[in-house]
Amino acid sequence: MRRLGHAPNAQTFHSMVTGYAAVGGKYIEVTELWGEMKSLAYNTSMKFDQELLDSVLYTFVRGGFFSRANEVLEMIEKAKMFIDKYKYRTLFLKYHKTLHKGKAPKFQTESQHKKREAALAFKNWIGLC
Predict the structure, then answer these.
(1) Structural contact between residues 59 and 37, judged by C-beta atoms closer than 8 angstroms
(2) What is the distance of C-alpha 108 from the center of its chain?
(3) Concatenated DSSP letters for 54-94?
(4) Cα–Cα distance between 53 and 76 in angstroms, integer?
(5) For residues 60 and 23, is the Cβ–Cβ distance under 8 A?
(6) In Å, how far are 5, 49, 64, 102, 110 from 57, measured between CA atoms?
(7) Alpha-carbon distance 129 to 91, whole Å?
(8) Cα separation of 79 and 110, whole Å?
(9) Angle, to 10 degrees, between the axis of helix 27-44 and the axis of helix 10-23?
(10) How far is Cα of residue 117 from the mean position of the Cα atoms in its chain?
């Protein structure tokens, strides 16, 4: 697409995110798309619509990528868009009900600690903490 001189827009990214979500389990690809989306938004001041950010957030929550989900939440809240917390609460309870329920383990790597903190921040945002 870029070789032909066309720049991707929000609809292009929405189609790709929807396609990866439909295939199932393609969360890493959506993470890569999110990186491209952020760089394009920063470099070209491209605006994303609520539907695109909602589908990206849904995919990240379903896949358990809570640090990325928190990044999307920040972008949505900065743009003052509507977020259906009930939808994400039910999604979290469906797929990650037992995630980080007890005390933190005594021995954790730094990456495990960051993942736990991101999940707890998201859990707090949806009102489960």
Answers:
(1) no
(2) 24
(3) HHHHHHHHHHT-HHHHHHHHHHHHHTT----HHHHHHHHHH
(4) 7
(5) no
(6) 29, 12, 10, 25, 24
(7) 16
(8) 31
(9) 170
(10) 15
Q: What is the pLDDT of residues 2-44, one digit of tens each?
A: 677 777 888 889 999 999 888 877 889 999 999 988 888 888 8
Question: Which residue's structure tokens are 């994303």?
Answer: 48
Evaluate if pTM is beyond 0.90. no
Contacts of 8 (CB under 8 A, 6+ apart): 1, 2, 36, 40
Residue 103 in tokens: 């005390």
**Is 43 in contact with 80 (CB distance < 8 Å)?**
no
